[in-house]
Amino acid sequence: MEYQIKSGQPEKQRHACIVVGIYDSRKMSRSAELLDAASNGYISAIVRRGDIEGKFNQSLILHNVPGLLSDRILLIGCGKEREIDEIQYRKIIRKATECLNDIGAMEAASYLTELPIKGRNLAWKVQEAVISSEQTLYRFDQLKSQKETDRRPLRKLILMANNRGELTQGEIALEKGIAISAGMSLTKDLGNMPANICTPEYLAKQAQVLAKSFSAMTCKILEEEHMRELGMGALLSVTAGSQSKAKLIQLEYKGSDKKKKPIVLVGKGITFDTGGNSLKPPAGMIGMKFDMCGGATVLGVLKAAALLKLPLNIVGIVPACENMPGSTATRPDDIVTSMSGKTIEILNTDAEGRLILADALTYAERFEPDAVIDIATLTGACVVALGYEASGLMSNHNPLANELLNASQIAFDRTWQLPLWDSYHDVLKSNFADMANVGNMSAPAAGTIVAGCFLSKFTKKYHWAHLDIAGVACQWSGDKKGASGRPVPLLVQFLLNRSE
Ligand code: BES
Ligand code: MN
Ligand code: ZN
Question: Whole-model pTM?
């Protein structure tokens, strides 16, 4: 969709539709009042009559309002004026976008950017309006033979600034919103694609396609032979049961001086997680096509960074493979040697994410990174701990963790820090190898942290943070099943902060 920033009074606009808010109970927003005055009380009369009270999720479309130049006025119920928070704002935008897409106006000017949200300025509201509208209109219908087509889809949304002085910040926010949305949509497309199509090879191909579209981006794919030479025994142990060949995707975005140390993003790219020989039960296996959402996030973030031409060097690494059972697959009790030289006793082949990440994180050392952030749908325990609200954040460097917490607050893409205290490491002790890949399976405790502790053994040489996105990357089941595009907003905000 096309977006634009404009300023000006609503009664002076000539558009297919003007969108304004009504607060609970029957209270007009500033723009609604201006429209009301110009139409000689037409709108307030309708509101007084009770056709719309301003409760959230209400909407009312008015045609040919006297005294106005626009064809339609869309009133959106916003709930209590003082209670509009970030979540409510997103829902209001979603509702408005759905209505606009339905009524066939095709083009509209929205004054919802004037709604008051504590601590958020116009730039934030513009950026969020773009992201929420794009996510509302997002569909994954590549694999449907009958596509639902909108009769007259919304093509252009004009977001209104209060005055001319706000236009510049509005335009910058628009660009950010568009770039973040584009990144999120890529992440969602890759996540939603099923594992029979979205194989490691497919992911590698998509990374190459992405790199081709930006002159500042290059892509290199490492094959299994190369991984073997590098000694990536942990990664290779995960792909051992699969017919598909593992790929290590390496994307490089150069937006800054060669000498500037890069930020390395490492994303878990398990294209399907059956659990391997420690097979998952059927219900727990559904949705495991989403186990590459960390990798998809890396691609999405790099796309957004390249669109925004961020003055940073960023490396994206995605170890991509499939976790399958079978006679060639790794067995519980097997011991493998990781690229770091450390040996790992694999007690559960379903704890595969940390194995591929261990080698990818060791590989990251060669970029002499300024910071490394890995993103992974790593543990079901993270869903238990934080639900679908926040990703789990763990780090070996508190300033880096704080940067991510700060970015998460700004982007309202929430994350919550968990500790990696020494005592949590104890359960990973092995009688036969340097470490085990899981703690005590019959009495699991702090599963997300234990997984973080495992990864931390491979990240001693740099500043590192880990995002467990098992709860936020997608809805794993139900009718809203699908990838969310998170935490692209968080990571792009982190990079934006680093660019300043
Ligand atoms: N991909 C899963 C984690 C997961 C589970 C994400 C459910 C989202 C929803 C991961 O590979 C896994 O299987 N983890 C195990 C670890 C356990 C064996 C220590 C888990 O969470 O059960
Ligand atoms: Mn698993
Ligand atoms: Zn997994």
Answer: 0.98
